[in-house]
């Protein structure tokens, strides 16, 4: 038995018309990258800081990002905690490198 769409009187206002009878299923759930996408970004940026800036702290941040990536689907709360640590280490490494760069620039040791 197929269901017929309900009767819609001619000239009914738009808001009073029922939705069409055909359906394609429920809408997809909202796309949330969650900890997986953030872990990939943290991993890439930490590795770039190791290679590009010789930031040794980036190794620790990359390790935490890999651990977060492994736990992203099974333990999302733990993954988020690991990501906070990864971002903190990344920021600390950049702060140390910027401080070192400024110190060397002020003392004139960059000219050598």
UniProtKB/TrEMBL annotation:
The chain crosses the membrane at residues 39-69, 81-106. The keyword Membrane applies. Residues 16-32 have a biased composition (Pro residues). Keywords: Membrane, Transmembrane, Transmembrane helix. Residues 1-33 are annotated as: Disordered. It comes from the Bacteria. This is DUF4190 domain-containing protein. It comes from Nonomuraea maritima. The lineage of its organism: Bacteria, Bacillati, Actinomycetota, Actinomycetes, Streptosporangiales.
């Amino acid at each position: 038995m197929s269901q017929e769409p309900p009767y819609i009187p001619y000239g009914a206002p738009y808001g009073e018309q029922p939705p069409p009878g055909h359906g394609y299923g429920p809408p997809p759930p909202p796309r949330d990258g969650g900890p997986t996408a953030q872990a990939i970004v943290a991993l890439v940026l930490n590795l770039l800081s190791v290679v590009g800036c010789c930031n040794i702290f980036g190794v620790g941040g990359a390790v935490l990002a890999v651990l977060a990536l492994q736990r992203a689907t099974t333990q999302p709360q733990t993954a988020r905690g690991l990501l906070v640590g990864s971002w903190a280490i990344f920021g600390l490494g950049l702060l140390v490198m910027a401080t070192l760069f400024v110190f060397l620039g002020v003392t004139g040791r960059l000219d050598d």
